[in-house]
Recover the amino acids of this structure.
């Protein structure tokens, strides 16, 4: 109906205003109040920008109704017009302006009056405080705007299997001790802030712009559940270490020390989780809490922002961006740098501590984790399939028997292939040598790691007689027995089916029931049960041995990691948690925006989606550490995949985020997505520092970190485009007015990346343009996603209005200043620090590129 189309917003203008002094024109602004229908009193909730020295001001900012007072035909609105004599007071607080202003007049109208107006506007006379004198008029216009896609994102399930494993069946998911399953119940957007503007186009017409900023409950729900899973996983590791059995005193002491460290991590995470459970009613972490211990896993100031544009010459368009503080361990600090530097230094130092354990490379420990994950997945699956085989035999179902045997053969062969890895054999030898009483012939403990031998002095061992030396061929026989058992099962099934076929002769229809009845339904099962039981026993035996061997590898890795490795892993967990929450939020926002776009969905399942992170951090002082943390956190997102339904894949190298969709949306998806094909994300990070600290870094310091990050991520972006162009017709990509070829944009970006130019923000502009052209997710970050981020987001929005919607060039600066003064970003500042000022001072801004400087009166140095 007409009321629902109104959309709770309208622009304003005034005519013939009279200033208090005859020798000047008024600096006009309008305060908007809603009359509470229950309590019958005014509720002030919004005001326009100040238009200086103009008796006929046209306000660019429109007015939206607050969510607690939605518009209805009966809604009464009061408009009060002021002459703000001293505009500089705006730097203190907009609301204080009213105390330094003179009242010009007021008028009241109902929404119903505006809805019924034939020309979609009301011209109201302003009455002075005495209700008699006419002080000009205020014009309320009704400009229609298409409905916003404000979809609540409900019941988002995030499934992140431990050690990079995707679960392949409900049974495996339930039985695997390493499964991770995050359920983000009722994840939705909250606390919307909406601003409406009207800007003039090049042909002197008007476009309507709606800017909406919201919080997302994923800010808290994903980190909380991730913490729970980290706790469960570490508890499982402790249990695995206990189950290693008796070890010599040296190794037993190392085990106890490692278990103590895991216990400390578990205790710390439990304490953090308990503190987070106490937090209620919040959906974002303000910048002033970025270094708070209990909130360190929560992304800083995470918000979604959507700009919706309606203009006469083009269909409606939406532009989305996610703003978040740099994913970094702010509580832990940056005195020694961030993750990139700390991890590099740690890998070099770790070898020097290997005297007390066997040094395994990161590749070997990663392989051990993969073997453990594969076994935890395949062992219960093989058991289940073996039971299905026996059930098919019980029912004498030839088809069921063949199908179950094929699946059982595939999974068992996968397991055997995993167990044949040389690392498993060498680790078993090392574990045997670490048990009490083992002394080799040369009176030294010798372990084989990969293809190399590592010897340890006898002083680390017990001086008691040695027992029988370990037979290296014993393990080969063990996994080979699994293969032999499988062969026996296959042979028995073939025999049963062959015998059954040989007995089948043409049977008259009237005798068929008697033939079926004469079969002994349990006969097949009785013959098949012994080899199947033996297969299950052999699988259980080798899995138990291999699990202990791989746990021993991880014990040595953990022992070499005390204490620095544990601390670094906690730091990495913190940073990844923040980055993952932001990515999940952006993915869901993008998915719902493009759910009807078949080209986007095709791109999504054939290639994947770019997630482009823009960073404005400097390469100086603490922000170097933040950038190093952020680089590692964004890089870790490469292991993340999304699926719209349960994935059926053998890929063991990624985290998986599951996003169930409502039935109506799900039915329109391509079959590949509905079948659960994993959807890849390609995170890329581009950084250009813009503040005064970056000036110091460029003149006297080192910006190699920034240069390396930009070059590396340009190569990732270029590789993504190449893959996309090979698999998806480029006409499936969104259409933009600026038809610069993406390949040409990439060439320009590549040139800018290698060009030695100070504060080359064109890198960010071009990368952002490419991301949008590629249907990607856009993220913008600085330290707190509050000040520099606000400058970047508003600049990007106005650039889009100019390039895509013919914003009049004379309105560009006005539009930019208007968004920075009155828009969602200044509201973001208010939410974070309870002050409507960007945290810059005039000296800092002198170092900023001009287009990143806020308008006068909107900034002042405050604690952030």
């Amino acid at each position: 109906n007409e009321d629902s189309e109104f959309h709770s917003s309208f622009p304003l203008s005034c005519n013939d205003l009279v200033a208090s002094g005859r020798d000047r024109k008024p600096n006009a602004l309008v305060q908007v109040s809603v009359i509470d229908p229950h309590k019958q009193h005014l509720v002030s909730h919004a005001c326009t920008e100040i238009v200086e020295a103009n008796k006929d001001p046209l306000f660019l900012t429109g007015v939206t109704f607050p969510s607690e007072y939605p518009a209805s035909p009966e809604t009464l609105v009061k408009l009060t017009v002021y002459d703000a004599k001293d505009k500089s007071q705006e730097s203190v607080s907009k609301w204080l302006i009213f105390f330094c202003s003179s009242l010009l007049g007021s008028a009241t109208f109902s929404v119903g009056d505006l809805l019924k107006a034939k020309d979609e506007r009301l011209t109201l006379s302003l009455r002075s405080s005495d209700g008699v004198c006419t002080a000009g008029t205020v014009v309320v216009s009704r400009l229609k705007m298409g409905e916003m896609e404000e979809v609540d994102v409900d019941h988002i399930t995030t499934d992140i299997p431990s050690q990079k494993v995707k679960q392949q069946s409900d049974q495996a998911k339930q039985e695997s001790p390493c499964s991770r399953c995050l359920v983000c119940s009722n994840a939705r957007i909250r606390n919307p802030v909406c601003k409406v503007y009207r800007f003039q186009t090049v042909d002197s017409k008007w476009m309507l712009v709606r800017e909406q900023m919201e919080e997302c409950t994923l800010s808290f729900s994903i980190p909380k559940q991730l913490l729970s899973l980290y706790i469960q996983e570490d508890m499982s590791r402790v249990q695995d270490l206990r189950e290693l059995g008796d070890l010599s005193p040296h190794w037993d002491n190392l085990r106890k020390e490692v278990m103590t460290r895991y216990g400390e991590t578990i205790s710390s995470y439990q304490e953090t989780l308990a503190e987070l459970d106490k937090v209620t009613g919040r959906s974002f972490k303000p910048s002033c809490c970025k270094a708070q211990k209990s909130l360190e896993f929560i992304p800083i100031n995470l918000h979604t922002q959507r700009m919706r544009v309606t203009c006469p010459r083009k269909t409606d368009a939406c532009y989305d961006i996610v703003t978040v503080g740099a994913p970094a361990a702010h509580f832990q600090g940056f005195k020694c740098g961030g993750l990139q530097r700390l991890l590099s230094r740690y890998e070099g130092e770790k070898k020097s501590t290997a005297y007390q354990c066997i040094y395994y490379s990161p590749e070997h420990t990663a392989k051990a984790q993969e073997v453990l994950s594969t076994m935890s997945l395949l062992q219960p699956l093989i058991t289940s399939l073996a039971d299905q085989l026996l059930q098919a035999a019980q029912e004498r179902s030839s088809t069921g028997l063949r199908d179950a045997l094929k699946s059982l053969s595939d999974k068992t062969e996968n397991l055997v292939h995993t167990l044949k890895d040389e690392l498993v054999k060498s680790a078993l030898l090392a574990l045997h040598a670490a048990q009490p009483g083992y002394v080799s012939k040369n009176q030294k403990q010798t372990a084989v790691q990969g293809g190399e031998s590592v010897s340890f002095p006898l002083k680390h061992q017990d001086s008691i007689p040695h027992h029988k030396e370990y037979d290296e061929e014993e393990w080969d026989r063990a996994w080979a027995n699994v293969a032999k058992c499988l062969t026996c099962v296959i042979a028995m099934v073939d025999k049963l089916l062959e015998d059954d076929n040989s007995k089948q002769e043409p049977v008259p229809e009237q005798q068929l029931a008697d033939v079926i009845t004469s079969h002994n339904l349990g006969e097949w099962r009785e013959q098949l049960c012994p080899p199947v039981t033996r297969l299950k026993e052999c699988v259980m035996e080798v899995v138990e041995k291999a699990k202990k061997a791989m746990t021993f590898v991880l014990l040595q890795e953990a022992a070499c990691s005390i204490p620095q490795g544990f601390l670094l892993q906690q730091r990495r967990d913190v940073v990844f948690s923040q980055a993952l929450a932001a990515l999940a939020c952006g993915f869901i926002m993008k998915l719902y925006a493009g759910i009807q776009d078949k080209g986007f969905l095709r791109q999504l399942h054939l290639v994947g989606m770019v997630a482009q992170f823009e960073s404005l951090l400097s390469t100086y002082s603490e922000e170097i550490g933040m950038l190093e943390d952020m680089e590692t956190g964004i890089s870790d997102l490469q292991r993340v995949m999304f699926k719209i339904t349960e994935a059926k894949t053998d890929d063991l190298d990624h985290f998986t985020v599951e996003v169930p969709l409502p039935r109506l949306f799900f039915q329109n998806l391509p079959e590949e997505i509905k079948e659960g094909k994993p959807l890849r994300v390609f995170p890329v990070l581009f950084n250009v520092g813009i503040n005064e600290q970056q000036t110091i870094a460029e003149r006297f310091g080192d910006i190699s970190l920034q240069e390396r990050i930009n070059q590396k991520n340009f190569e990732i972006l270029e590789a993504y485009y190449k893959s996309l162009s090979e698999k998806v017709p480029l006409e499936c990509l969104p259409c933009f007015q600026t038809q610069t070829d993406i390949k040409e944009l990439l060439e320009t970006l590549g040139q800018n990346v290698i060009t030695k130019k100070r504060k080359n923000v064109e890198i960010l502009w071009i990368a952002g343009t490419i991301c949008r052209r590629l249907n990607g997710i856009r993220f913008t970050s600085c330290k707190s996603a509050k000040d520099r981020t606000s400058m970047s987001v508003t600049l990007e929005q106005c650039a889009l209005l100019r390039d895509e919607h013919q914003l009049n060039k004379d309105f560009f600066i006005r539009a930019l200043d208007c968004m920075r003064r009155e828009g969602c970003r200044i509201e973001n500042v208010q939410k974070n620090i309870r002050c409507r000022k960007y945290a810059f001072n005039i000296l800092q801004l002198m170092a900023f590129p001009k287009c990143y400087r806020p308008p006068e009166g909107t900034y002042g140095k405050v604690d952030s």
User: Anything to note?
Assistant: The chain has a mean pLDDT of 81.
